[in-house]
C-alpha cells in the first residue's frame, strides 16, 4: 500500500521571475534551438560518410543536450510552486530574501537572494534554498553570525541586512 506522502508530486519553490525565465527557455529551445539542430543534422548527413563526420556528431551531441533540457523543463515547470516575494516581509531570513553578509575574516561584503534550486545563479547573486549558505542563513536576523562549512574549512559570516523587494 502506498502512503499518501509517497504519491505527492514534489513541488519546487520559485519566484515568478524564475518561472518566467524557465518558460522562456523552454519556448526558445522548442521554437528555435530544436529546429536549428535538426537542420544542422540534415545538412551534415548530406555530406556523406557519417562515421567520420565531425559536424554530424557535434549536431547530434547538441540535439541530445537540447532534448534532455526540454525534458527536464517539462518536468520542473508543472511542479513549480510560485512564491510571491512581494508579499513577504520581516526581519528574518527566508525564501525570497536579499541577504547582505560580511565575511568575518576578510570583511568582504556580499548580497545574495535566496531562491529555488532551479533558478539559482551565483553570478547573478542568487543562491539555492538548499545550498549550505542559505541553509545556515534561514531563520536568522540582522546581527546574527552563521558558520558555513566550506571546502577550505568553515567560514563565518555576519548578517548585516535582510530585505524583500
UniProtKB/TrEMBL annotation:
InterPro entries: GreA/GreB_C_sf, TF_GreA/GreB_CS, Tscrpt_elong_fac_GreA, Tscrpt_elong_fac_GreA/B, Tscrpt_elong_fac_GreA/B_C, Tscrpt_elong_fac_GreA/B_fam, Tscrpt_elong_fac_GreA/B_N, Tscrpt_elong_fac_GreA/B_N_sf. It comes from the Bacteria. Residues 90-163 form the Transcription elongation factor GreA/GreB C-terminal domain. One of its GO terms (molecular function) is translation elongation factor activity. Residues 13-82 form the Transcription elongation factor GreA/GreB N-terminal domain. Keywords: DNA-binding, Elongation factor, Protein biosynthesis, Transcription, Transcription regulation. Belongs to the GreA/GreB family. NCBIfam families: greA, PRK00226.1-2, PRK00226.1-4, PRK00226.1-5. Necessary for efficient RNA polymerase transcription elongation past template-encoded arresting sites. The arresting sites in DNA have the property of trapping a certain fraction of elongating RNA polymerases that pass through, resulting in locked ternary complexes. Cleavage of the nascent transcript by cleavage factors such as GreA or GreB allows the resumption of elongation from the new 3'terminus. GreA releases sequences of 2 to 3 nucleotides. HAMAP family: GreA_GreB (MF_00105). This is Transcription elongation factor GreA. It comes from Craurococcus roseus. The gene is greA.
Amino acid at each position: 500500500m502506498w502512503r499518501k506522502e509517497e504519491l505527492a508530486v514534489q513541488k519546487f519553490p520559485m519566484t515568478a521571475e524564475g518561472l518566467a525565465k524557465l518558460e522562456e527557455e523552454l519556448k526558445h529551445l522548442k521554437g528555435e534551438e530544436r529546429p536549428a539542430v535538426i537542420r544542422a543534422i540534415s545538412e551534415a548527413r548530406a555530406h556523406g560518410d557519417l562515421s567520420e563526420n565531425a559536424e554530424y556528431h557535434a549536431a547530434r551531441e547538441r540535439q541530445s543536450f537540447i532534448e534532455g533540457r526540454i525534458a527536464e523543463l517539462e518536468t520542473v515547470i508543472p511542479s513549480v510552486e510560485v512564491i510571491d516575494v512581494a508579499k513577504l516581509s520581516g526581519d528574518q531570513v527566508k525564501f525570497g530574501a536579499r541577504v547582505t553578509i560580511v565575511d568575518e575574516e576578510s570583511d568582504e561584503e556580499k548580497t545574495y537572494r535566496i531562491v529555488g534550486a532551479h533558478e539559482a545563479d551565483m553570478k547573478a547573486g542568487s543562491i539555492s534554498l538548499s545550498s549550505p549558505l542559505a541553509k545556515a542563513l534561514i531563520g536568522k536576523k540582522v546581527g546574527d553570525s552563521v558558520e558555513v562549512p566550506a571546502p577550505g574549512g568553515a567560514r563565518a559570516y555576519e548578517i548585516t541586512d535582510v530585505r524583500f523587494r
